[in-house]
Protein backbone atom coordinates (compact mmCIF):
# COMPACT_ATOMS: atom_id res chain seq x y z
CA UNK A 1 0.00 0.00 0.00
CA UNK A 2 1.22 3.49 -0.82
CA UNK A 3 2.42 5.46 2.18
CA UNK A 4 -0.06 8.25 1.42
CA UNK A 5 -3.10 5.92 1.64
CA UNK A 6 -4.65 5.76 5.07
CA UNK A 7 -5.14 2.32 6.65
CA UNK A 8 -8.50 3.56 7.93
CA UNK A 9 -10.88 5.52 5.73
CA UNK A 10 -13.62 7.85 6.93
CA UNK A 11 -16.56 9.09 4.89
CA UNK A 12 -19.37 11.17 6.38
CA UNK A 13 -22.55 11.74 4.39
CA UNK A 14 -26.15 12.39 5.39
CA UNK A 15 -25.47 11.79 9.06
CA UNK A 16 -23.72 8.45 8.50
CA UNK A 17 -20.00 7.98 9.19
CA UNK A 18 -18.53 4.98 7.38
CA UNK A 19 -15.26 3.80 8.92
CA UNK A 20 -13.43 1.36 6.65
CA UNK A 21 -10.42 -0.83 7.37
CA UNK A 22 -8.21 -0.25 4.33
CA UNK A 23 -5.39 -2.80 4.31
CA UNK A 24 -6.88 -5.38 1.93
CA UNK A 25 -3.47 -6.82 1.06
CA UNK A 26 -3.06 -7.70 4.76
CA UNK A 27 -6.66 -8.86 5.33
CA UNK A 28 -7.20 -5.58 7.21
CA UNK A 29 -5.00 -6.76 10.05
CA UNK A 30 -4.16 -4.25 12.75
CA UNK A 31 -0.60 -2.95 12.88
CA UNK A 32 0.32 -0.04 15.13
CA UNK A 33 -0.35 2.56 12.44
CA UNK A 34 -3.80 1.14 11.75
CA UNK A 35 -4.72 0.99 15.43
CA UNK A 36 -3.63 4.58 15.98
CA UNK A 37 -5.57 5.73 12.92
CA UNK A 38 -8.65 3.77 14.03
CA UNK A 39 -8.54 5.27 17.51
CA UNK A 40 -8.36 8.77 16.06
CA UNK A 41 -11.27 8.12 13.70
CA UNK A 42 -13.64 6.53 16.22
CA UNK A 43 -12.99 9.35 18.68
CA UNK A 44 -13.72 11.86 15.92
CA UNK A 45 -17.03 10.32 14.90
CA UNK A 46 -18.08 9.80 18.51
CA UNK A 47 -17.67 13.53 19.19
CA UNK A 48 -19.14 14.80 15.92
CA UNK A 49 -22.77 15.90 16.42
CA UNK A 50 -23.32 15.73 12.67
CA UNK A 51 -22.73 11.96 12.81
CA UNK A 52 -25.93 10.16 13.83
CA UNK A 53 -24.98 6.60 12.87
CA UNK A 54 -21.61 4.85 12.42
CA UNK A 55 -20.82 1.96 10.09
CA UNK A 56 -17.67 -0.12 10.55
CA UNK A 57 -16.59 -2.24 7.58
CA UNK A 58 -13.60 -3.51 5.61
CA UNK A 59 -12.16 -3.52 2.11
CA UNK A 60 -11.33 -6.62 0.13
CA UNK A 61 -11.91 -10.18 1.33
CA UNK A 62 -11.81 -9.52 5.06
CA UNK A 63 -13.59 -7.37 7.61
CA UNK A 64 -10.58 -7.41 9.96
CA UNK A 65 -8.44 -10.37 11.05
CA UNK A 66 -7.16 -8.72 14.23
CA UNK A 67 -3.56 -8.19 15.24
CA UNK A 68 -1.02 -8.00 12.41
CA UNK A 69 1.02 -11.09 13.22
CA UNK A 70 3.86 -10.16 10.86
CA UNK A 71 4.45 -6.98 12.82
CA UNK A 72 3.84 -8.93 16.04
CA UNK A 73 6.67 -11.35 15.23
CA UNK A 74 8.99 -8.52 14.22
CA UNK A 75 8.38 -6.79 17.54
CA UNK A 76 8.99 -10.02 19.45
CA UNK A 77 12.22 -10.73 17.60
CA UNK A 78 13.47 -7.18 18.06
CA UNK A 79 12.75 -7.28 21.78
CA UNK A 80 10.25 -4.43 21.57
CA UNK A 81 7.97 -6.08 24.09
CA UNK A 82 6.92 -2.74 25.59
CA UNK A 83 5.35 -1.72 22.29
CA UNK A 84 3.90 -5.19 21.83
CA UNK A 85 2.28 -5.82 25.19
CA UNK A 86 1.07 -2.31 25.92
CA UNK A 87 -1.05 -2.24 22.76
CA UNK A 88 -4.13 -3.52 24.58
CA UNK A 89 -3.99 -0.63 27.02
CA UNK A 90 -2.87 1.96 24.45
CA UNK A 91 -5.00 0.90 21.49
CA UNK A 92 -7.51 -1.93 21.78
CA UNK A 93 -9.13 -0.86 25.05
CA UNK A 94 -9.67 2.79 24.15
CA UNK A 95 -10.87 1.88 20.64
CA UNK A 96 -13.52 -0.56 21.80
CA UNK A 97 -14.47 1.58 24.80
CA UNK A 98 -15.08 4.51 22.46
CA UNK A 99 -17.22 2.34 20.19
CA UNK A 100 -19.30 1.00 23.07
CA UNK A 101 -19.60 4.43 24.66
CA UNK A 102 -20.86 6.30 21.59
CA UNK A 103 -24.27 7.89 22.06
CA UNK A 104 -25.32 6.90 18.56
CA UNK A 105 -26.03 3.59 16.79
CA UNK A 106 -23.09 1.58 15.44
CA UNK A 107 -23.39 -1.05 12.70
CA UNK A 108 -20.77 -3.63 11.72
CA UNK A 109 -21.03 -4.39 8.01
CA UNK A 110 -19.08 -7.65 8.04
CA UNK A 111 -17.95 -8.12 4.45
CA UNK A 112 -15.60 -11.05 5.12
CA UNK A 113 -13.86 -12.92 7.89
CA UNK A 114 -13.68 -11.16 11.26
CA UNK A 115 -11.07 -12.79 13.48
CA UNK A 116 -9.49 -12.07 16.85
CA UNK A 117 -9.77 -8.40 17.69
CA UNK A 118 -11.63 -7.91 14.42
CA UNK A 119 -14.41 -10.17 15.67
CA UNK A 120 -14.33 -8.39 19.04
CA UNK A 121 -14.82 -5.02 17.34
CA UNK A 122 -17.85 -6.35 15.48
CA UNK A 123 -19.30 -7.73 18.72
CA UNK A 124 -19.04 -4.24 20.26
CA UNK A 125 -21.38 -2.85 17.61
CA UNK A 126 -25.15 -2.76 18.03
CA UNK A 127 -26.00 -4.60 14.82
CA UNK A 128 -23.91 -7.01 12.78
CA UNK A 129 -24.99 -7.37 9.16
CA UNK A 130 -23.02 -10.21 7.56
CA UNK A 131 -22.37 -11.09 3.96
CA UNK A 132 -23.23 -14.75 3.44
CA UNK A 133 -19.54 -15.36 2.72
CA UNK A 134 -18.40 -13.84 6.04
CA UNK A 135 -17.68 -15.49 9.38
CA UNK A 136 -16.23 -15.06 12.85
CA UNK A 137 -13.17 -16.69 14.39
CA UNK A 138 -12.09 -16.18 18.02
CA UNK A 139 -8.53 -16.98 17.08
CA UNK A 140 -6.74 -16.01 20.31
CA UNK A 141 -6.01 -19.52 21.61
CA UNK A 142 -4.31 -20.45 18.33
CA UNK A 143 -1.50 -18.03 19.20
CA UNK A 144 -1.59 -18.72 22.94
CA UNK A 145 -2.99 -15.35 23.91
CA UNK A 146 -5.97 -14.36 26.00
CA UNK A 147 -9.02 -12.65 24.52
CA UNK A 148 -9.10 -8.88 24.23
CA UNK A 149 -10.93 -5.87 22.79
CA UNK A 150 -13.91 -6.47 25.05
CA UNK A 151 -14.75 -9.98 23.85
CA UNK A 152 -14.82 -11.37 27.40
CA UNK A 153 -17.74 -9.00 28.00
CA UNK A 154 -19.56 -8.90 24.67
CA UNK A 155 -19.27 -12.48 23.45
CA UNK A 156 -20.95 -14.17 26.39
CA UNK A 157 -23.75 -11.61 26.31
CA UNK A 158 -24.45 -12.55 22.72
CA UNK A 159 -24.20 -16.35 22.97
CA UNK A 160 -24.08 -17.24 26.69
CA UNK A 161 -21.09 -18.21 28.81
CA UNK A 162 -20.86 -21.87 27.79
CA UNK A 163 -20.84 -21.17 24.04
CA UNK A 164 -18.45 -18.23 24.54
CA UNK A 165 -15.96 -20.45 26.34
CA UNK A 166 -16.29 -23.09 23.63
CA UNK A 167 -15.64 -20.59 20.84
CA UNK A 168 -12.63 -19.20 22.72
CA UNK A 169 -11.13 -22.58 23.70
CA UNK A 170 -11.61 -24.18 20.26
CA UNK A 171 -11.20 -21.49 17.61
CA UNK A 172 -12.87 -22.11 14.27
CA UNK A 173 -14.51 -19.98 11.64
CA UNK A 174 -18.21 -19.73 12.43
CA UNK A 175 -19.94 -19.27 9.06
CA UNK A 176 -22.57 -16.60 8.55
CA UNK A 177 -25.62 -18.85 8.82
CA UNK A 178 -24.41 -20.38 12.09
CA UNK A 179 -23.50 -16.92 13.37
CA UNK A 180 -27.11 -15.90 12.77
CA UNK A 181 -28.41 -18.94 14.65
CA UNK A 182 -26.06 -18.29 17.59
CA UNK A 183 -26.95 -14.61 17.83
CA UNK A 184 -23.58 -13.31 16.62
CA UNK A 185 -25.22 -11.88 13.49
CA UNK A 186 -28.26 -9.65 13.30
CA UNK A 187 -28.87 -10.39 9.62
CA UNK A 188 -27.19 -12.33 6.82
CA UNK A 189 -27.49 -11.09 3.25
CA UNK A 190 -25.98 -12.07 -0.10
CA UNK A 191 -22.52 -10.56 -0.39
CA UNK A 192 -23.52 -8.48 -3.40
CA UNK A 193 -26.35 -6.87 -1.43
CA UNK A 194 -24.42 -6.02 1.75
CA UNK A 195 -23.67 -2.40 0.86
CA UNK A 196 -27.24 -1.70 -0.22
CA UNK A 197 -28.77 -3.26 2.90
CA UNK A 198 -26.39 -1.50 5.29
CA UNK A 199 -26.82 1.85 3.52
CA UNK A 200 -30.59 1.65 3.93
CA UNK A 201 -30.34 0.57 7.57
CA UNK A 202 -27.82 3.30 8.43
CA UNK A 203 -29.95 5.94 6.74
CA UNK A 204 -32.97 4.84 8.76
CA UNK A 205 -31.01 5.07 12.02
CA UNK A 206 -29.42 8.39 11.08
CA UNK A 207 -32.90 9.82 10.51
CA UNK A 208 -34.03 8.65 13.93
CA UNK A 209 -34.13 10.36 17.34
CA UNK A 210 -30.39 10.18 17.95
CA UNK A 211 -30.42 11.28 21.58
CA UNK A 212 -33.07 8.68 22.42
CA UNK A 213 -31.26 5.94 20.52
CA UNK A 214 -28.01 6.83 22.28
CA UNK A 215 -29.78 6.74 25.65
CA UNK A 216 -31.20 3.30 24.88
CA UNK A 217 -27.73 2.12 23.91
CA UNK A 218 -26.19 3.36 27.13
CA UNK A 219 -29.02 2.03 29.28
CA UNK A 220 -28.77 -1.49 27.85
CA UNK A 221 -24.98 -1.54 28.26
CA UNK A 222 -25.23 -0.24 31.83
CA UNK A 223 -27.91 -2.75 32.79
CA UNK A 224 -25.74 -5.67 31.67
CA UNK A 225 -23.57 -5.45 34.78
CA UNK A 226 -25.60 -3.45 37.29
CA UNK A 227 -28.50 -4.25 39.59
CA UNK A 228 -32.11 -3.80 38.61
CA UNK A 229 -32.45 -0.84 40.97
CA UNK A 230 -29.40 0.84 39.42
CA UNK A 231 -30.71 0.12 35.93
CA UNK A 232 -34.10 1.73 36.52
CA UNK A 233 -32.43 4.72 38.15
CA UNK A 234 -30.47 5.29 34.96
CA UNK A 235 -33.63 4.77 32.92
CA UNK A 236 -35.26 7.55 34.92
CA UNK A 237 -32.37 9.92 34.30
CA UNK A 238 -32.29 9.12 30.59
CA UNK A 239 -36.06 9.53 30.29
CA UNK A 240 -35.73 13.03 31.78
CA UNK A 241 -32.84 13.77 29.44
CA UNK A 242 -34.66 12.64 26.28
CA UNK A 243 -37.89 14.31 27.40
CA UNK A 244 -36.16 17.68 27.10
CA UNK A 245 -35.06 17.16 23.49
CA UNK A 246 -36.39 18.96 20.44
CA UNK A 247 -36.99 15.55 18.86
CA UNK A 248 -39.39 14.57 21.65
CA UNK A 249 -41.32 17.81 21.28
CA UNK A 250 -41.48 17.31 17.51
CA UNK A 251 -42.66 13.72 17.92
CA UNK A 252 -45.48 14.69 20.29
CA UNK A 253 -46.57 17.51 17.98
CA UNK A 254 -46.52 15.18 14.99
CA UNK A 255 -48.55 12.59 16.89
CA UNK A 256 -51.23 15.14 17.74
CA UNK A 257 -51.28 16.34 14.14
CA UNK A 258 -51.38 12.74 12.88
CA UNK A 259 -48.19 13.34 10.91
CA UNK A 260 -44.88 11.51 10.67
CA UNK A 261 -42.21 13.15 12.86
CA UNK A 262 -39.00 14.51 11.40
CA UNK A 263 -36.09 14.10 13.81
CA UNK A 264 -33.07 16.39 13.91
CA UNK A 265 -30.99 14.37 16.36
CA UNK A 266 -31.16 16.91 19.17
Q: CATH class of the largest domain, please?
A: Alpha Beta
CATH architect. name of the largest domain: Alpha-Beta Complex
* Biggest sheet: strand arrangement: 1-2-3-5-7-10
**Oligomerization status of the protein chains:** single chain
| Major sheet attributes | 6 strands, mixed
CATH superfamily of the largest domain: 2-enoyl-CoA Hydratase, Chain A, domain 1
Shape: globular
Average pLDDT score: 95
How much of the residues is beta strand, in percent?
A: 15-25%
CATH topology of the largest domain: 2-enoyl-CoA Hydratase, Chain A, domain 1
What is the count of helical runs?
A: 12
Count of discrete domains: 2
Describe the structure.
This protein has a six-stranded mixed β-sheet with strand order 1-2-3-5-7-10, sandwiched between helices. The radius of gyration is 19 Å and the shape is globular. The chain folds into two domains: 199 residues, Alpha-Beta Complex (2-enoyl-CoA Hydratase, Chain A, domain 1), CATH 3.90.226; 47 residues. By secondary structure, the chain is of the alpha/beta class. The mean pLDDT is 95. It is built from twelve helices and ten strands.
